[in-house]
Every structure is written in C-alpha cells, then in structure tokens.
Amino acid sequence: MSTSTTEPTRKGFSGELVGAVLLAALGVYLLVDAGAIAIPGSSNTVGPRFFPYAVGGLTLATGALLALRVLRGDRGPADDGEDVDPDAPTDWRAVAVIVVAFVAHALLINVVGWPLAVALMFAAVATTLQGRMTPRAAVRPFLVGLTVGCVVWIVFVKALNVALPGGTVLEFLTSWF
Amino acid sequence: MGISDLLGGFADAITPVNLLFALLGVVLGTAVGVLPGIGPAMTVALLLPATYVLEPTSALIMFAGIYYGGMYGGSTTSILLNTPGESASIMTALEGNKMAKAGRGSAALATAAIGSFVAGTIATLLLALVAPALVQVAINVTTADYFALAVLAFVAVASVLGSSPLRGLASLCLGLYLGLVGTDVLTGQERFTLGIPQLSDGIDVVVVAVALFAVGESLYVASRLRKGSVQVIDHKGSWMTRNDLRRSWGPWLRGTAFGFPFGVMPAGGAEIPTFLSYATEKKLTKHPEEFGHGAIEGVAGPEAANNASAAGVLVPLLTLGIPTSATAAIILAAFQGYGIQPGPTLLTTEGPLVWALIASLFIGNAMLLVLNLPLVGLWVKLLRIPRPYLYAGILTFASLGSFAVNADPLDLVILMGLGLLGFAMRRFGWPVAPAVIGLILGPIAETNLRRALAISDGDLSVLVDSWFSRVVLLLALLALVGPVVLRAVRGRRATPEESAQQQEDREVQKAGNREGWGA
C-alpha cells in the first residue's frame, strides 16, 4: 500500500501503474479528439489541431514509458513534508471524509450561505484529522470553523466586495453595514 | 538606463498605498512560508482575484512580497520544526535544525535572515542591472526563438525538479492538457471542452493551482498525518556573535553567487544551488568537525542561495516572459490578467511598473529583515497551530479563492477533482510545479509556434533558422537526454536531497552516534 519507501526498486502492485496507464489513455484521447477540432476554412498553415496532436503524442509516449518503468519496479519517492509521517499507513478514511465534506460544502454554498457551509466542512475535516470522531469532539472544530467563516466572509464581502453568498441570517445581521 | 529608472521606481514604490501592499505581501509571505502545507505559489494563486480590484502596480508589489517572504519564512520552519521540510529548504534544515537542538537556534535564525537579506539585496541589484542588458538581446528574439525558449523551460523544469525526469514530463503533460482545454485564441475553436459550456473559457489558473497545491497537499497530509503534538524547538542563545558573523559573510556571498545564475537559467529551482552551496561550504570550512552537528556556514550559504535564486527567477520572467518556477508562472498569470504580456518589450511599454516592482523588492527585503529578526517569536506561535485546524483552514481558503473567481459551485467540484489528482501525484512522486508551468506557458508556446509557422507558410525548418533557437533547442535536448544517459552510465541518479542525506548519514556514522534526524 505504502509507496513512501525511497528504495528505487520494489516489487508489488503500485497505484502509479494506474496513473501511468491513465496518462497514456489521456494521450490517446487527445490524439483522437484533436481530429474533431473544427478548422476554419481559409487557413493553409498550422491550425488549432497541430499543438494538441503534439501534446497528445508526448502524453501517450510519456504514459507508456512510465508504465513500463513502473512495471520494471521503478518507484517514485513519495512527497515529503513537515507534517507527513512517511512510515504511516495511508488513512483512506480521512481522504474520503475530506472529499465528501468538500463536495457537500460546494453544493451547500448557494443554499445555506458560504460561512455555514464552510463551518460544516471545517468541522468534518478537523474532527477527522484530530482522530476523535464523536459528536462532542466536533463541537469545538465547528465553532472555530463558524468563527473563521464569518470573519472571512465579513472581511471579503464587506471590505473587499467579493461576491459570496452569506446565508439569510448573516446577511440580515450585517445588512446595516 | 538603469539608475535613474530605478530611482523613479523607488519614487513610485514609496507611496503609502504601495508601501502598504509591500508590507501586506511580505507579512502574508512570511506567514505562508512558516506554515507547512502552503507555499507562495498557492498564496499568490489564491490572491489572483485581487487583480480584478487592485491597480497592477499594487497587486504585483504584493505578489512579489509574498514570493520573497515565503523564502524567509521557510527557513524559520526548517530550523525550528523537528521534522524535515520541503526540498528547497532541506539544506538549511540539515545544519539549522542541529544548531537549534544545540541551543543555538537564535544564531541559526539570524544568519538565515541576514543572509537572506544580503543575498536578496545583491540579487535584486543584479536583477536591476541584468534585466535592461538582457532586454537589448531579447528584443531581436523571433517567435521561433521564443518557442525554443519555452521548450527549454518545459524540459528543464520537468527534468530538473523532482527525482525522475519521466515523472516530471508526466506532470508537464497534464499541465499542457489542462492549458489546451477551452477556446483556441487564434481561431476561436473550442477544444476538449466535452461540450460543457463552463469549460469553453478554459480551466481557471486559480482553480488548477489551488487544487494541485492546497487541496492536493491537504489530502496527502491527511492521509499520512504525523500524529502527536507539534514539536517546536526553542530558539535560545544570543543572535550572532562576532565569530558567527566572521564565519557567515563568506557563505552569504558565495551562496548568492550560486543562487542568482541558477535562478536566471530556465533550469530554475532553488534545489541545485542550495545543494552546491552546502557542499562548497563543507569543503571550505575551517570547522569541518561541526558539519552534521550544526555548522553555521551550512545555514548561511544555502539560505543565501535560496533567496538569490528567487530574485534570479524574476530575470527571465520580466525580460522574456518565461516563468521557471511555479510562483513565477502564477505571477505571469497575474500580468496576463491585466492584459500585459511579459516579454522583451515589457521594460519599454511598462517601464514604470517594472521599476516600481524592482524597487519594492529592495524595500520588501528590508521589511523582511525587521519582520524576521525581532518578531520571530510571533511566527513561532504560528508554527504551533494544531494541524487539524491548519488543514481545515487551508481548505477554507481554497474554497474562498476558487469560488470568488466565478461564483460557480461547479468550480469547487472541479477543484476537488484536480485536488485528488494532486494527491495522487504526491503519492507517485510526480512533481506538481511542471503541471502549473505547462498550464500557463503552454498556450504562450503554442501561440508563438503557430505565429512562427504562419510566417514561414508551415515550413518547420523555421524553428531552427536562427543560431539562438538552435543553441536553445540543443540545450533542451541535453537537459532531456542528459539525465537518462547519466543514469545509464552511473546507475540511478541520486537527487540532491538523497546525496546530502547519504553524506549526512556518513557524517553521523563517523561520529559514532547514529541518531536519525527528525525522528
């Protein structure tokens, strides 16, 4: 599962193979779909298809070569960072929670306003990352998220005129501003 | 040319509004440099919507401040945080972290900050001197030459950043593809839009950059979060003794000499010069026994190299319009947002803007010295932010920045989709920066290629018509094939970090106490 090792060769299945194959597939898509780009009549020189063909070819070649290397056991060194524990197993649940919470907040923005949508997302992400997922442990993250969301909204909407739905309550409360 | 223009630039930069934006930029830059998980590229990307409301001069001064500030802040993190950081500051971490553990944290911070100031000032001066001279050469550059330069930048960025050229190319391809999506500027034809109307304007640079950097990083860190409380080493001891100063000034100057040229070259990146600086100081030092245990030369040199290369990167950006780092690519996007295309004519058409920008870099550098030496305690507090809140906050700002562009929730769904791509790339060891550079430089390269071919009536030989493009394309070929050949000859190519790690391992073994740093 873990690709964090810096050893150059390691046997076993790697997710990178999927990535490389998908990249090659993207190359094929670019090459095929480039043929469908309409070319305005009069041009006798290089039109809008030329560069897509070139990029498609490069992408296909890179994907194929990379797939080959991965199959032969070459692994890229996984990224490191200050907060990354290179030996930790992948926490897929945290990843899933973040993806779901973020997409949900995107769909909620126009319904409940940005500050509340962001507070819910903030609470879900922070609660998951702190490792305790009880309703009680989510109270503080939610309050922090709500404060951050409201303050940021007030600064950006009232002071900088960014278009951001605030939700009925906050918009009513700050309508005098 | 030169001095009088620069003085005019100072006159523009010293207005209260521009000073305020310079201050705002360096404060933000230092903050994001200190915080793990976000960097200057992502911050500038998040603030790109500011170009809709701000004057070009103010916005660009702020962005440049963020860029310089990020370099300063990164050193604080690598010295005081008990865990290794990003590759550009890893050389600083090597010795700086050891110094902090030995109770000399303040001296390490001081030599890093003053070294950054010295290097930043000299390098900005070099920028002011080199840029007009380079423009004289670049003014004769044809569209074909320009295309060759873009190719060199692509290849160099892909093969130099990260450990494997092929993975850099993979990242570059993704960026070039994302840059193709949308309406072709020359003929108005839609390309790869899948019939989705929102995609006909192309995928916004803000969304891509924020997704790959902020969302991708948050997902990746979440998947492997270091558990337990954040350990920050106290910064103790005196700032700099006379002895420290005597040992630092040489490395500062040599680091600058390494950093600036590497920044200027399209092969960009701060990793190689910091590594070279570290290796040089290790060879030249009169205290070889201290290396591996906190030698001040090992902090002073790489940190100066790091900052000098940041100034160097601005040379190709301002004179040729070629970005060689992710942040530079996004600053280029900011110029384009104002309808300004950086290139050889920039200094003549937008002279006051460029000189005000350069002048503000000097001012920002001085501000950063003040911000980073006496106020370092403030930044250290930032380092202690609980990580669950930090990453939830990063996602909050990612949402804000991307939603602000078009007020369309679909952008946020695309953001998460591309964020997952960034997550996968981090797992696979594909560097992210080539994708951003491909996205922004790709369309520029295509336009120049097609203009060149339109002039030649489709004759491809126009691409190698001038000596300039021949040399540049040859360099690109070397950059692409060189590492592959080297690997075939010597076995797998070791990255600078790995070599340094090996070197350090040997050092530690010699001393007889094997203690993994950051453990």
UniProtKB/TrEMBL annotation, chain A:
Keywords: Membrane, Transmembrane, Transmembrane helix. It comes from the Bacteria. InterPro entries: DUF1468. Residues 18-165 form the DUF1468 domain. The chain crosses the membrane at residues 20-39, 51-72, 92-125, 137-156. This is Putative tricarboxylic transport membrane protein. It comes from Klenkia taihuensis.
UniProtKB/TrEMBL annotation, chain B:
Residues 496-519 are annotated as: Disordered. Keywords: Membrane, Transmembrane, Transmembrane helix. The chain crosses the membrane at residues 20-48, 60-81, 107-134, 146-162, 169-187, 202-222, 313-335, 355-380, 389-407, 467-486. Residues 19-437 form the DUF112 domain. Residues 503-513 have a biased composition (Basic and acidic residues). It holds the Pfam family TctA. It comes from the Bacteria. The keyword Transmembrane applies. InterPro entries: DUF112_TM (IPR002823). This is Putative tricarboxylic transport membrane protein. The lineage of its organism: Bacteria, Bacillati, Actinomycetota, Actinomycetes, Geodermatophilales.
